[in-house]
Model the fold of this input.
Amino acid sequence: MDILQVAKRANVSTATVSRVLNGFPGVREKTVARVRRAIAEMNYVPNPNARSLRVGRTRMFGLIVSDVNNPFFPELIDAFEALAAAEGIEVIFTHTNYDPRRLHNCIRRMIERSVDAIAVMTSEVEEDSLKEAINAGIPVVLMNQRAMAGKYPNVLVEYTTGFREALEHLLALGHRDIGFIAGPQSLNSARGRKDAFTAALRDHGLHVRSEWIAIGDMRVEGGRKAMDALLARNPRPTAIVASNDLMAVGALQAAHASRVRVPRDLSIIGFDDVPIASMVHPPLSTIRHPRREVAARAFECLWKIVQGREIAVDQPLHPHLVIRNSTAPPAGAKRR
Amino acid sequence: MDILQVAKRANVSTATVSRVLNGFPGVREKTVARVRRAIAEMNYVPNPNARSLRVGRTRMFGLIVSDVNNPFFPELIDAFEALAAAEGIEVIFTHTNYDPRRLHNCIRRMIERSVDAIAVMTSEVEEDSLKEAINAGIPVVLMNQRAMAGKYPNVLVEYTTGFREALEHLLALGHRDIGFIAGPQSLNSARGRKDAFTAALRDHGLHVRSEWIAIGDMRVEGGRKAMDALLARNPRPTAIVASNDLMAVGALQAAHASRVRVPRDLSIIGFDDVPIASMVHPPLSTIRHPRREVAARAFECLWKIVQGREIAVDQPLHPHLVIRNSTAPPAGAKRR
DNA sequence: GGAATTTGTGTAATCCTTTACAGCTCTTCA
DNA sequence: TGAAGAGCTGTAAAGGATTACACAAATTCC
Done:
């Protein structure tokens, strides 16, 4: 079923078939039709390996994420894939399971498959791993790796905007005593979120009470424990912002277990807007992470690089607050 | 950076380098070492396209699912991928978004990429789409497509076992009045679940009260509406089994909204055991779908076919009940 | 009418591995 | 000692597409 068969059937050379296949100009109308018919009749599908071998590109992009099981990622993967499919690019994807050392393996695998470009959407990135891709001539785009801003194309998300909106919402409701559930400060992404939150707080002239900041593991369990710690404080915050939704869900559970009613006794705001956020009770107000847009930017960036076009300077994307039912005025307060 | 360079450096023929690369026997110890060194020094990575072109296999498997955003799938994908990676197989995956017609495109894409095998893990399958893969000589494995049992290798899940366990649990608690939230009966998978439930009910000598069966869309919203309908019945069931967790979560929300306490006033059991099941309040008792095992079976099956080995006859897998906190004795009853 | 283009198509080299086959050197054995 | 066999390694032909280059025919231009 190779191109030669088609060429014979259409009574032309393989070169001509190839030209038709790739839509090159300069083939007579009638010849094109003849070739097309032969292709259809023989149900011919070009061999991608032969093509890639010759052309040096595979039309495959790699996508590396931290964890498929984290509900944050499916939308991102979905968006990336949809765009890729539209351009005829196949995506192969792997995950590091949060282990930056595994990034190295992932990238190696992608190099071995000779993908045309790689998007790295993990919270943690070791630069050494990237170098290997660069050395192999494969362009890379990162997500929100401030530490490497400038060195690599990088889709940035301005967390502060989201926290500021959340804060303004809480302040408007009358809250003044606001706690925070942070992630492990050894993780870039968690540190970034905490810094953004404290920055937003400071912008509003509020100071950060360290006893109102608890640290969790970015998962439900950690949120539960962090909330237990915060509930034991005296005085206690009247509102809590969590640095991701999973921990906010844990916080909700802990509050429930301690018979603290949300939102009447305590307001909770999450971050990310993963699907569960709207499925818990009460539905969680949360800051929506623009991950579909992140995926889109990342893909476009790689696509441009691969085509040898200019890439624009990174303008950060902004998360926005989504108000649901986990926020209300503090007990005994009236709206101002 | 081709094999010729390595061969020159190691002072052998490309054939010998290839033999070393592929671990073929019959190369002198010393030569192997020399070649290995050359490979390492030159940081040589074989070109997969050239290899695939020659060998006729790509070491890529396709995985087609219904929906990445459905929390059911990530674990399945993860498990499939992990096994594949262990064998040096790359997975490319796509989703049909529940549209059986899109399966056709998905399979076409996979054929164009000339994957070595395809696993189809969607709820709905049109046979015509599969034929194209078979014609292209690509083996296919299905998940739970009873309609095509026998024609294609097929990983079956015996839903009845799970429902029977759920039922026995509810009966032991003292429930007799048990309702069911089904999915759209136009979908194979939803119909299969409903049939399995009614079969389990009948096995226990209970009859099916049609007014205690409601139909939802397999998502949270549909579960909510279905539950509202069931709550309006008189008499009302004391326990509800939903045909997936998302609808069970919706049911939980509806119960909550109607001030029906779960599990005190009403017991709810879900199906699948997706991550949210344990994150809602109360944590949902549910029937765990053995999807990691499904993925494993599917992969092994394809792997055997690709290697030309015998494949075993399908023994179905069994889901099992996971008891959490959404089930309790009916109001005013004591355990028997 | 002949030179210069333009248009359309074919020839053959190339991309990089794998592998059938051949050939060489050394043992081993009768 | 000569033949047979074992153990290594090299030669060269695939495998299926793309593409630089060449060439023939048709058109345009002086």
Summary: The interface with chain B takes residues 43, 45-50, 52-53, 58, 60, 68-69, 71, 74-75, 77-78, 81, 85, 90-95, 109, 111-114, 135-136, 220, 246, 249, 252-253, 256, 275-276, 278-281 of chain A (CB under 8 Å). The CA atoms of residues 21 and 36 of chain A lie 8 Å apart.
